[in-house]
Amino acid sequence: MKLQSVRGMNDVLEPQIFLWQAIESRIHDLYRQFGYVEIRTPIVEPTALFKRGVGEETDVVEKEMYTFEDRNGESLSLRPEGTAAVVRSMIEHNYLRENPVSKFYYIAPMFRHERPQKGRYRQFHQYGVELLGSPDASSDAEVIALHSLLYTDLGLKGVELRLSSIGCNDCRPAYRTLLSGLLEKELANLPEDFHKKIHTNPQRVFDLKNEGAKVVASKLPKVLDHLCENCRVHLNGLKNRLKDLGVPFELDPSIVRGLDYYNRTAFEFTSSHLGAQSAAGGGGRYDSLFENIGGKATPAVGYAGGMERLIMLLEDSNPAKRPRPIVYFVGVDEAGLQRCEPLCFELDAKACIARSSMRRNPSKLS
Ligand code: AMP
């Protein structure tokens, strides 16, 4: 049997790795500049964390997780996203008691058993931040503006910010009931696997790709017209703050995030250059997640973007494909080659890439 990498999981080779490293380094710098501290959590977590955190009704948990029993019979899963694990870690270490407002970031591999296509993989990498402990709209604005700055700074073209509010525990139940009632009358126009979501998560109708469903969705009442006073004030505060910071956005009430923990602010950066998988990244507020996984109520907001999609957007334009000059020595014979080797070592130490070979084999270097 020929051994190959697992479908949807890719090697990153030269020269692409240089671009990965350059972008990762820029992301590390920018996040640190804004006071975010790196956090590294395990790749594997108890399955229950994602069931309770991300939500049992979500596609990610229902259909896409890599779940297995370890040798002790415990159900574990490869993490499909980063936020639930960061929150689990905060609760476990009681971290926010000493640091009531904390800012973390990560750049890490995630795993989802999706159908692979351009921009969609089974192992992919996310860069992201979590701003914990602040209920203020200015924190949402900071997380958004930070990524707008990142994309501008990297020279990304055609990136747009789409913003919405998906309500809170006070106003969302009534809106959902309203949607469920209307959707019940449209069963014939909705895909069968969505029928059971009509009562559990009717807002997902706005995310359906099927043409009939899109027509149904376009006629439904919009969430922005059904927000409670507190959600409206929060959204207006965020819009004003973004205007102050000079971050352009478009209100888009059709945004529904694929993970259940979001409330109020929901946003996405999209790019027309990405094709069908147009989201460069997405985020929002998740004020109930701490409680859902056994912690004290803690307001929070976060964002995660896809590294592979960033690489796709930058691949053609970024000149930093090779980080260092290359010097290539060719020895005319064995003795000559021996003289080259210490020279290579010396140049390597001075941050060049130096290589040597005999004249017979000089072709390897591109
Ligand atoms: P999500 O956690 O679903 O909000 O995803 C945040 C971002 O991660 C998306 O906007 C994508 O850029 C990226 N992403 C999510 N799933 C995948 C995937 N299967 N392959 C590549 N990138 C992904």
Could you walk me through the main structural features you see in this protein, from its secondary elements to its overall organization?
The protein is an alpha+beta fold. The chain is about 35% helix and about 20% strand. It contains 13 helices and 13 strands. An eight-stranded mixed β-sheet has the order 1-5-6-11-10-9-7-8. A three-stranded antiparallel β-sheet has the order 2-4-3. It has a two-stranded parallel sheet with strand order 12-13. α6 packs parallel to α10. The longest helix has 18 residues. It is globular and about 85 Å long. The two termini are about 30 Å apart. About 35% of the residues are buried. The structure holds adenosine monophosphate. The site of adenosine monophosphate has 18 residues, from β6, β10, β11 and α12.
